[in-house]
Amino acid sequence: MASAEGRGKRDGAKKPGPSRGERRSSKRGGRDDATRGEFVDAMRNLIGERWGTVWKSMPVALAGEDIEGVHDVRVASRRLRAAMDVAVECFPGEWYRPLHRTAKEITGALGEVRDRDVLLEALGAQRATAPDPERPGIDRLMERIERERVEARASMERYLSGLLEGGLPGEVARRFGPAAAPRGEDER
User: Fold this and answer.
1) 73 located within any domain
2) Phi, psi at residue 13, to the nearest 5°?
3) Helix (H) / strand (E) containing 183
4) Which residue in 155, 177, 130, 176 sits closest to 70, CA to CA?
5) With contact defined as beta carbons under 8 Å apart, do 187 and 178 qualify?
6) Which of 1, 36, 128, 186 has the CB geometry, 3.0–4.6 Å to 178, for a possible disulfide?
7) Number of structural domains, the chain?
8) Considering the domain boundaries, does residue 126 fall inside one?
9) Distance between CA atoms of 19 and 31, rounded to whole angstroms?
10) Where are the alpha helices (DSSP H) in 130-167?
11) What is the distance of C-alpha 92 from the center of its chain?
């Protein structure tokens, strides 16, 4: 037979009171507000640094001379997104949501190029060890993927250039501090 306490918890009749930690913090007069302020400041700084890393990585991705440039921007944007995911409740949604969405879009905008870079690298390695009769097929596949990559890269370049030339860098720096500005827009 279940105890009265057990029945109360199951049917919702008994509601627990505040935890000891909650009671203690309310006695300390505003400590939660101070802690929240420290958290918001820490997240603002972290997000600013993460935006700065995204901006810093973009020139190599745009130059197209090193496939790791695209990878570096994707990694930086995923880290930015992770920080922004944690901080959703810290900042007003009317300006935070569009910036958060843009961080997600950056990752996606580079995905098509990165996928093709990885495919081409793997196919190149496979071709090097493939028997001679298989090489023409691998070559045709690599040519098709390279054409797709060129198209994806043009789209990526338009997108990233638009971000850099538009108002986003200034908005990000205004919201998250000078560490969030692209190189040359702040006094480091």
Assistant:
1) yes
2) -70, -35
3) none
4) 155
5) yes
6) 186
7) 1
8) yes
9) 16
10) 135-165
11) 19
Cα distance between residue 90 and residue 103, in whole Å: 17
Classify residue 40 by its DSSP letter.
Answer: H
Residues 6+ apart with CB under 8 A from 14: 5, 8
> What contacts 102, CB < 8 A, 6 or more positions away?
163, 168
**145-172 per-position pLDDT tens digit:** 999 999 999 999 999 999 999 999 999 9
Q: What is the DSSP letter of 185?
A: S
Q: Is residue 84 part of a domain?
A: yes
| pLDDT tens for each residue of 11-38 | 555 555 554 444 444 444 445 777 888 9
Its pTM surpasses 0.90: no
Of residues 126, 156, 131, the one with CA closest to residue 141:
126
Question: Structure tokens of 16?
Answer: 């627990």
Burial (CB < 10 A; 0-12, 13-18, 19+), residue 92, is exposed
- Residue 83: CATH number of its domain: 1.40.20.10
Judged against a pLDDT cut of 60, whether residue 104 lies above it is answered with yes
Domain containing 61: what range? Answer: 34-180
Going by C-alpha positions, the residue among 111, 138, 144, 140 that lies closest to residue 122 is 138
Q: Is 20 helix (H, G, I), strand (E, B) or coil?
A: helix
Q: Which amino acid is at 137?
A: G
